[in-house]
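Researcher: Checking consistency across runs. Here is LacI family transcriptional regulator again:
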Amino acid sequence: MRRTRQVTILSVAAAAGVSKSTVSRVMNGTPTVDPEIVTRVRDVATRLGYRPSGTAQNLSRGRTGIVGVLVPDLANPLFAAILKGISAEAEKDGYRTLVADANEQPGEELRHLHELARQSDGLILCGPRMSTPDLAGLSELDEPIVVVNRKPARSLFPSVTVDSQEAVDALCRHLDALGHTRLCYLAGPAEAAAESDRWSALQSSIRSRTKLLRIPAGAMLDDGHAAADEALATGATCLIGFNDLVALGALARLQELGFAVPDRVSVAGFDDIVYARYTSPGLTTIAMPQTEFGQEAWRLLSPFLQGRKGRRTRTLQARLVIRPSTGPAPMRG
């Protein structure tokens, strides 16, 4: 079988009677090339079926065509959904994403980011756990950065955040109507901006007759499972997880112990990951705008990649989703 000869930039240069560098300038849209030569080169390229390498074009322009994305935990479906939103929008603009997973290890985030910065044109940080000084220090990287689900101090970088207060108010009203007066919050990682936001929202939303307790947990299924016994010991009639994974871990432990949910204990979470809908019972949760987080992050970053100024902030809204995991508080006999 005869092999088809590959058309290269040298093939176009020879057929058009110009140098390789001239073909490169034409294909990259350099405005200083004579219009007659531009027409001749493009006609030859079309006739020969030449298609310039996107990677080569980007490199010649000093770009990689890649955007780096840092996530704290890829095992959490929330961040997978955010990444999906980023990737879909980036692809429309001809960019690809390179992802680094910090695996809930804040100390690893800076190392990952410096590696990403060497291979990308911009960075998107999803819920970074690093300290405020470390986050501020990223300005030395000298490339566009957008932060998701955390507002940098002094608005140093463009950011996409979420306002959960109204949804948390609705959750507390829902639990109050069901007769719950003793709640236990299974707290997330201290480094997570969402942790302080969610705890503050709960504190400001509970009714005067309600006791809100707090025990340390984490961000993963195992963390919720491990914290459930201590949470039960508080006498709370409803457990609220830092996120859905923590809530689902606690739910699994309650079922192991023979505690019917919601008959004996109610459970709620944050995020509305895909598992929340399909677990049994379905999980009541504060739904985050997951894919929209990613889409909006790209829309903030894109103008800066093109050398233009863009918006600095975007605030999205969370909402309450009520499912069977919350029910009337058990009667105290």
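Researcher: Does this match what you'd expect to see?
Model: One thing to look at in this run: The mean pLDDT is 91.
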